[in-house]
Sequence to fold (134 residues):
Amino acid sequence: MAKVIIDEHDVEIGRYILAILKSRLDIVASWGFDPKTLRSIKFGIEFYVQGFKHKGKVQVRLNEGEDLFEVALVSDAGDTVETKESIFLDELISTIDDAVENVENYEKRVATEYPYLTQSDNPEKVRPIEIIIL
Fold:
């Protein structure tokens, strides 16, 4: 198997995709995004998540010819379990969110999984987010 070479153009595409994701860190954080796993791949980036629906890698690639994105969910075993293609820029975060995190009765699931969010001593119902992203 030939080794894939990541060049500076791939890194630039990755920075572009990351800038899009950084526009909604609140949503990205809800995926259990692990910044230590972020890496450049050919035409995009890859990172690990621990969402309600998917635990594993997410690969985001830019198809420059069409100016559209592709999202692939990859299991811990390395198998591609789902691929979404032809994603517009303004749909990228919501597409990943729907594939990784967003479940039916989401608010109830969050309250069950993270009861401290609804505790009376947390009046803003905000979980402190400590993320180091680039």
